[in-house]
């Protein structure tokens, strides 16, 4: 099987771009897990809502940039509603019930999307300023994809700086580490929880708009992306931001190379990768080791 | 409580010594007798109801198989669709290529379920809790992709094996040396009911046996069981394989009934739905998950006529999990024990909810 060098290069770039965008979704999922102890099955649905709201806003105002701004914020509002009226009632109970709740929400949102936007495939119009391709060495690469790569990478770097360096990040990590102690120090942990969930939702919304202009927007995309993101988060180690980013890159690359070698069975590579990682490191690459 | 401390069914699982009290056993016998009467009645009123009842029984069996590993051994499988689907595909392949004899097809489906579960289990029991769940999910998805992309046909160089996206269609009905005409839906119903009843009996016996007690011990404290000298991994794999056998049987009953085996049977959404059935019904009670399966199948079937049926179905899940934390089984038990208190309970639940949300 001979594959041209330029297509390998192209696949590499595509993989990195896809990985960074998926990292936006996975970062939210892993932060929510790390802090709230919630496996958010509805996270893919938030990503999907970002894409659909992006379709509507960009069609309404004819501006991709407005969609990129408004849609994620609207998804953040949806996230706030889910956290306050749904998850809050379940904290302190067996975490299994979060799965049932968010699974129910995911089914609900999928139904709503079909009801509002219909079952057909839609698309966000990418801005004219980002149309066309550029020549990068031997590869002809769409400008929009470069833009997606740049903005995703910037956002991931910003999130990392925030978690690692800012006071807010310290507060978040502290709450994840010992909720009771932070609570005892006079900080309203429930607000931190809501904040983290909304933050994760906004990131997923951004990813939805970004990929909505390069992949198709359809009612199945929520359930589609959630499995990809679970794989990422589990490989990286649940709750680990760093792990999620590395794993997202790996998944992006495997998806892109897989499409080159055997497009119909790419998913097998992903799941096999996850299985191998878990068999060698049962808690993922950067997962907490004390966990039983 | 941390999710990483493994999914902990202790809180929700049955805490009683016996799996079923004598009253419970009697109740189940009464239920089976009632179902035996209900079938012909439902069929007489509306033939479609019999179809629904068979569907419910199959999913009840599947839910039962998951409750055995999850409720009793504490192993949350997020890939039970793998055993259900491969059991179903085994049945479909046998019917198309070899024989439609139920005495061959159904045992083969069970065996396939056992083998697949032993394979998945052997790899997956290395990880615990949510990571175990994700490993089972990964293996199940691999089976899904294999069926969807019809990988066997590529490997064997033949035109088609699994039929890819379309699946294997137009299957003949099962036969039993001409003893029982299974193209008659009523007979199929009784066959299914009988097998489900036998499976339930077997699982109750298993759960109460020394083997079942070890599994429960593993659920309660895995490390201690290992110190005592039990080969914990081996017990888990065997428990998982047994559960897989019942899931395979469910698949083997479902596919000839639908006369269709499709990749969707192996997809994770089915595994997810199954977990919902368990939680909705009441984990670790054996009868609760079967009830949950009935409720989910009925809801899906009844609601699918409505425009936004998924919205309603999702809302039901959400409301149940917030207001009936122990599932339908828990709600029924508390209603049975103290019917007068039911209104008070509802008021308490609402007040509790308001307090938590307003915090």
UniProtKB/TrEMBL annotation, chain A:
Q: Which CDD domains match?
A: TM_PBP1_LivH_like
Q: How is it placed in the membrane, per its record?
A: Multi-pass membrane protein
Q: Name one Pfam family in it.
A: BPD_transp_2
Any one Gene Ontology cellular component term annotated for this protein: plasma membrane
Source organism superkingdom:
Archaea
Q: Which UniProt keywords apply?
A: Amino-acid transport, Cell membrane, Membrane, Transmembrane, Transmembrane helix, Transport
Annotated GO biological processes are: amino acid transport
Q: What is its main location?
A: membrane
One annotated GO molecular function is: transmembrane transporter activity
Which regions span the lipid bilayer?
21-43, 63-85, 97-117, 143-163, 192-214, 268-288
Family annotation (InterPro entries): ABC_transp_permease, BCAA_transport_permease
- Subcellular locations according to the entry: Cell membrane
The record's listing under PANTHER family reads: ABC TRANSPORTER ATP-BINDING PROTEIN, BRANCHED-CHAIN AMINO ACID TRANSPORT SYSTEM PERMEASE PROTEIN LIVH
Similarity field: Belongs to the binding-protein-dependent transport system permease family. LivHM subfamily.
Q: What is this protein called?
A: Amino acid/amide ABC transporter membrane protein 1, HAAT family
Please report the organism this UniProt entry assigns to the protein: Halorubrum cibi
TrEMBL record, chain B:
Question: Which InterPro entries does the protein's record reference?
Answer: ABC_transp_permease, LivM-like
Top-level taxon of the source organism: Archaea
Where in the sequence is the signal peptide annotated? none
Tell me where it mainly resides. Answer: membrane
Which cell locations does it reside in? Cell membrane
Q: How does it sit in the membrane?
A: Multi-pass membrane protein
Q: Which PANTHER family match?
A: ABC TRANSPORTER ATP-BINDING PROTEIN, HIGH-AFFINITY BRANCHED-CHAIN AMINO ACID TRANSPORT SYSTEM PERMEASE
Protein name listed in UniProt: Amino acid/amide ABC transporter membrane protein 2, HAAT family
Which organism was this protein described from?
A: Halorubrum cibi
